[in-house]
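Re: beginner question about structure tokens

> Can someone show what the tokenized structure looks like for a real chain? I only ever see the sequence side.

Sure, here's an example I had lying around. Input first:
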Amino acid sequence: MLSARPADARAAIVWAGLGRYMAGMHATTALPATDAPTADTPTLPILTPPHPSLRARTRKVGPDDMDKVRGMVPQMLATMYAAPGIGLAAPQVGVPLRLAVVDLQPDDAPAPVVLVNPEITRVSEDWAVREEGCLSLPGQYADVSRPARVHVRYQDLNGKVQELEAEGLLAACLQHEIDHLDGVLFVDHLSALKRNMILRRLAKELKQKAAG
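And the corresponding structure tokens:
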């Protein structure tokens, strides 16, 4: 899951040009009412390192998986909203499928997008640096360099192939979530020294939280 620092979350979402990308996504991938989360939808535990699910490559969603996926999506969205976050990948809740949900809420209203079997098909030559966090690494943040623009192909819940061009926060979010599907965390884009420092700090904080 991609997250922003709590104090910066709203500022991070207000990104020039975001609306036209999210509008295009939402128009073709809007959830049926039966798939949208409700106040009673249960949330799922979000895994933290060193849980092996976070480091395992996920498998492609097949036709036989779609009933499970449709049942999971409301829970994944409820979990993402409750966190709060702007993206969540299936392995973060212990499910080894190529599935992620994203919602940047550009108009301060839910606009969820479900990405089944997403893949990055093109990236820009220019890169951008953005501070990232992740609810699998709560409270940890670092600047991450990624391609500034990406083209993503995925399926919606009806199995229809969709394509999306994205930049800015949306591009970073999509790359972050697709990384999760390959067992990659945002700290893997950092130097070994900085990555290990963050993971050690996280382990200490989680241990203190469990003890307290």
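Each token stands for a local structural state, so reading them left to right follows the chain. The longest strand covers residues 113-123.
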